[in-house]
Write a structure and sequence with these properties.
This protein is α/β, with parallel strands linked by helices. Helix content is 55%, strand content 6%. Helix 13 crosses helix 14.
Amino acid sequence: IYSRPLKADKFLDDTMEKLVMGKTAVVKAAAYSLPFKNLLEGFIKTMEDRSTNAVRNFSLAKQRFESSYEPMLRLTLFLEAFIMAAQQIIRNNSSEETAVCNSFLQLLTEERLLTLAMLGDASACILRLTRFLDSEEHDISGVADQCLECANSLHHLFADQACDDNGLTRHMLARLERPLVWLFKDGTAGSVGGNPAKTRDALAKCRPRFLAYTKLALQTLMAEFPSFGCLMAFRAFQLGVGGCNSRKRKNPTGPGAQTRQECVERLALLCDLPKDTLLEQLEARSKSDHRPAAQAVYNSTDVDTFDAWKRAWLSYENASGGRKRHPGDVLGEALQRFGAYNGCTSSGVEQSFGKQTQLFGKQRLRMLESTANDENALCLDALVDDAKLCHRARVIWTHLQYGKPRKMKSDSRITKGMTRKKTKKDLSIKAWRDASQKKVLKEVRSKGPLKSVKQLHGKIRFARGSSAWTSGHETEAAFQERKLDKKFLDAALDKKLLQDEQTKVAGTALQVHAKAREAKRREQEKEARKRQDLDMRRPRILSLGAAVRGKVVAVEKELSLPANALVGCQEVEQQCKQAQVCIVENVASPSSRMRWVLALFGGLCLSKKFAASAGKHGPFLKYEAASAKKRAIWISESFQASIPGITDLITAACRKPGSQWTLLQRESEVTTTRGSVIVLIEAADTARKRLYRGQKKAVTAKEFLKMISVVDKVASRLC
């Protein structure tokens, strides 16, 4: 959601690469250069207006988006300190970071700095969704609300132009009210800010650019979390707003009755359950039904949504006459699917942890000593969360109705009784970030109910020929639209769409997609079978007699074999022309002619060790016949004149019975032939090399041999 719209805009991508993500970015110097880090820390302490004195979290990993947000945030907040540290490095002129710092100072313009600040505000909105999904405690019934909050926050900031009064953009606009001056390496002065006209012009350039970014981000969000997806169906179980953090919010609204009914219909399709029965058992008819009971458990205990529903359902199932008064058979099946999906994860780390936990517990006696030591180490390293333990104890105390628990007294401090005023110096980066995000969310919720992602995306439009909406944006938008259409057709084939959505699917498109999906499934099954069979430890049994019996055999020159090694073969060729079996010293490097024959016609390449041991030891390779694959070929005159022997072999492969190769007679047929055509040329024929590209490809003999040499990995033995 963050990176793909960023890559579509060259200026945004260039800004991020040169200031934060690139190898020569100043953030990398702050992370890995000790002199720069020490200077930066000292200058941060001298800043009059700062959020914190901490200098950390400048290291980042490109594959993790969250690790790039903190350095970008600190670069924006500590811009003055960065400028002073870079100027000091340049003045010394003895550090390796001189070029990095000089490049950083040359990049500083009002447009670049406002772009960096707006990128920080955009990433903060998307980061809330990322952290929610990365959390082990995240509740899938709240995914829909988190997506809506992310979309509405982005639209509020950049479409409604509220970024001027929020977050890093507001901070940067305040910084640019006064000039920031520095000296370059050659002694000339540079500055940024202090000119309201330049700041207004830069802001006018950034607004349409980030409006296009928002439109692409919303389209990516629709493609990644489609409204017809199964995650949106579980919104029917939602008891609060936003999943695990809903209790901390005031006036939770949750999905409306119409939205919840649509989610129930999707849930019934997903679980193959009767829609009317599920709706009747899931929704509240009285205060003692399943939903009010689950809501009461959710509000009074420290459990997630699934556990609250589970407790409420079990309380009626186990009660005397509860099943008759409150039937929940269909609801129970839906809850089983809800619990199963709630534990699913695409994270490889979490999946490996899940597999390891199966070894712990009651099966300890079956564990290896090393595994037991690992378990002990894990148990010793696990720290008890005192705050969480005390909170649960307080909840239990309240639930048992022993009265309101007393709060723990804090340790007395020497300043007790004195009024303390919290200043900006005492604030942390996290507190500044959280306060900024809460302010944006408060403004978004004050506008009324959250709008759908599709509604917000439709509101953003660009005039034809707009400079903000470039060809890169068009390409990315088309890619996301194709992804969404593919998911929509998949859901239609699986019959997981609502009735009004199913009528929008074109029958022809559905048939084409069904054929493509079936072909892909077969290809995946074929690859899976190959991976299962491709076990190098498994012996490949092939006897020498079965390999050479009735076959034409060619033996590498000056290679001595046992007298009975070639018993039963049809013929032994002195020069390899049509051999089906080649015996060589090293199967990885047979002679050139043998390799051509094996690649064109297929066959076995046996090692000397294999022949000497009658097939018990030694490697062998099985080549697939290249002529079995459909291909059109034209051989140039220069190719025929330079290597006539190879030309004869290729011609024989084209004329062999069952061959799928077509040999073109004239060069004019190359352009008129449909599909791909291989043009064989001499290495010095650079004119044809430049002329034929794409489907009409010109290759040399060496390139063609590499192209057609295919070894059957499953039927070969390498040791």
